[in-house]
Amino acid sequence: MNTPIRGIVPPLAVPLKDGRVDHASLERHINRMIDAGIHGLFVLGSTGEVVFSTPARRAEILEATQQIVNGRIPILAGVIDTETDRVIENIRQAESFGVDAVVATAPFYALQGLPEIERHFRLLREATDIPIWAYDIPVCVHVKLPIDMQIRLGQDGVLSGVKDSSGDDVSFRWLARMNDEAGHPLQLLTGHEVVVDGAYMSGADGAVPGLGNVDPAGYVRQWDAYQCGDWEAVRAEQDRLAELMRIVQVQGIAGFGAGVGAFKTALQLLGVFETNEMPRPVEPLIDGNIEWVASVLRRTGMID
Known about the structure:
Blueprint: E1 7-8, E2 16-17, E3 20-21, H1 23-36, E4 41-43, H2 55-69, E5 75-78, H3 84-96, E6 101-104, H4 114-127, E7 132-136, H5 138-141, H6 147-155, E8 161-164, H7 169-181, E9 187-190, H8 196-202, E10 206-207, H9 216-228, H10 231-244, H11 255-269, H12 287-299
Parallel strand pairs: 1-10, 4-5, 5-6, 6-7, 7-8, 8-9, 9-10
Antiparallel strand pairs: 2-3
Helix pairs in contact: 1-2, 3-4, 6-7, 9-10, 11-12
């Protein structure tokens, strides 16, 4: 695939049932998002439980996704792991399933300095011909990828794009400006789903919204408005999506369990997932937290 990846590329949430991938729910889920008009899928990202998945589970998810998508949209595969050689092994696996690009973070166990992080990405480039995207997520890997490094790796053909989940809107603005000044070597997708409108004003090439699992059509409408220059529609859609994102404001649960737990619970309430089961050791939302998610869905018109 030589066409740049842009538009709405949700990070695929994975339905589980009794500890296994629920293939029937996965097919409903992917087809629902494709029918809504998404432009690609990011498989095995943070929302996609990549760090919870064994190599066999990663392979199962990649194979099932490719079979369901069947070439209709591009697939980016997370190859996230602790250090370089482990990431290269994951790239080999992703290549075997014919994905369109791979997405890698900086190393995150034996913490590295910036020269080693840059060498990490260059070694990945030497190991594969497939497009490589950087995943900038400092909350998980303990380092923010410097803007000049990202631009340099783009200009040198090491990186094709960046999935920015830093939550740093100032940095993203500067990155977008420097990227344009350098001739736009990188495709820039924001993972900051509550302020996608701001990223579009900065010149983003699209979004990777976890909330896009719940409301893909809303993000597609926002993207279409952006392409038409209808900024009032962009803002109005973002206001509604920001309200919908309140599903993650559950009680007594934090981090992954709150965010992805709320997405899965919403998808269960919408009839897409059979269960809201989470990967061990994370517990699914129950009782009052399920009702909270339902109340937000009702308030935003997702359910009656």
